[in-house]
């Protein structure tokens, strides 16, 4: 496997992250590592889907639903590190952990979440599955309350772009500085708590257009969302969550 990372953060980047709640770090992973991640991501999803079709049982790792036209749609698979050696190598890379530690202001961060995001329709026989009917967009939300309820009061999310993350492909949208204020959350039936438009107006959002190999980092309290993937191409992300390691807890 290719050694993944070689980078360090400047004081200006750390200050920008504190103010805006996100960073875009282009060309952080080499092309060979990205290709290894793509292959493993596709193999992993194909295996999970084939198993579900064969057993006619849902896989608890797979988050999926039907689009209004009835097509099955996969959002993510979680967790994945036990299924993807390259993802594990990236997640454990000491230089990536060093970047996260600098932003958290705490040494030896704990990896507390991992998943692969797909945002893609799948051509499988899924008539047996009782799935909700939803659209493709991921609505405005934060992850901080969910993580805090699971014992992680501060989390940084790291997303590795495996494909071009264009606006047409449903690139991540963020609301700069929203991690620094109290945000209203409104419960929904199938998509968890979402942020109302008055707390995150569309005209102040920033779309994080990024090339493969780019790493996006954002505070879990930052409001974020993503649109439909209408590009006709994959938009895969490896997403990792890190938190400060509490005193006395092994990393």
Tell me what the structure shows.
The protein has 5 helices and 11 strands. By secondary structure, it is of the alpha+beta class. Helices cover 24% and strands 23% of the residues. It has a 7-stranded antiparallel β-sheet. Strands 5-10-7-8 form a 4-stranded antiparallel β-sheet, with no helix packed on it.
Task: Give the rounded overall mean pLDDT.
Answer: 94
Oligomeric state of the chains in view: single chain
Strand order, biggest sheet?
1-9-6-11-4-3-2
The outline comes out as globular
Q: Give me the count of strands.
A: 11
Secondary-structure-based class equals alpha+beta
Radius of gyration: 18 Å
Estimate what percentage of residues fall within beta strands: 15-25%
State the end-to-end CA separation.
Answer: 24 Å
Short description:
This protein has 251 residues and is α+β, with helices and mostly antiparallel strands.
List keywords for this structure.
4-stranded antiparallel β-sheet; about 25% strand; 7-stranded antiparallel β-sheet; 11 strands; alpha+beta; 5 helices; about 250 residues
Topology:
Layout lengths: L10 H10 L1 E4 L5 H25 L6 E5 L5 E6 L7 H8 L1 H11 L5 E12 L16 E4 L2 H6 L6 E6 L10 E3 L31 E2 L7 E5 L4 E3 L10 E7 L8
Antiparallel strand pairs: 1-9, 2-3, 3-4, 4-11, 5-10, 6-9, 6-11, 7-8, 7-10
